[in-house]
Automatic annotation (TrEMBL):
Residue ranges of domain Cytochrome c in the record: 24-124
A Pfam cross-reference name: Cytochrom_C
Protein name: Cytochrome c
Gene Ontology molecular-function annotations: electron transfer activity; heme binding; metal ion binding
Domain of life: Bacteria
InterPro entries named among the record's database cross-references: Cyt_c-like_dom (IPR009056), Cyt_c-like_dom_sf (IPR036909), Cyt_c_1A/1B (IPR002327)
Coiled-coil spans in chain: none
First and last residue of the signal peptide: 1-20
The keyword Metal-binding is assigned to this record: yes
UniProtKB keywords: Electron transport, Heme, Iron, Metal-binding, Signal, Transport
Length: 130
């Protein structure tokens, strides 16, 4: 191998490992979701609990799941839950939506947040995995 080939190979290896480090893992996210399960349900047959059902949450306007009693702060936040807003919210719910009634302090690890979002993204509004 020439020096140029070695550099090109090293660049591919580094790029691949950086991509893997930033990848979302829904299976790990399901484990992280156990922290959320005390208040939220997801999947077919899910029902509102302390918190609303999270089926189809990615892409849904905040405060709109039918028949759940949201705080005014959440209903009036103007947020549509995409990955960026969910990342902020899951890191620190009260900072993202002051006045929310969600008492969860947030997930401190970026990796856990990414993984739980990957898990949530699997569920459509009907609760079925895509």
């Amino acid at each position: 191998m020439t020096n140029l080939q070695v550099y090109v190979f090293a660049a591919f290896v580094l790029a691949g490992s950086a991509g893997a480090a930033g990848a979302q893992d829904a299976a790990l996210g399901e484990k992280v979701f156990l922290k959320c399960k005390a208040c939220h349900q997801i999947g077919e047959g899910a029902k509102d609990a302390v918190g609303p059902v999270l089926n189809g949450v990615v892409g849904r306007k905040a405060g709109t799941y039918p028949d759940y009693n949201y705080s005014d702060a959440n209903k009036n936040s103007g947020i549509t839950w995409d990955e960026a807003t969910l990342k902020e919210y899951l890191k620190n719910p009260r900072a993202k939506v002051p006045g929310t009634k969600m008492i969860f302090p947030g997930l401190p690890k970026e990796e856990d947040i990414d993984n739980v979002i990957a898990y949530l993204k699997q569920f459509g509004p009907d609760g079925k995995k895509s």
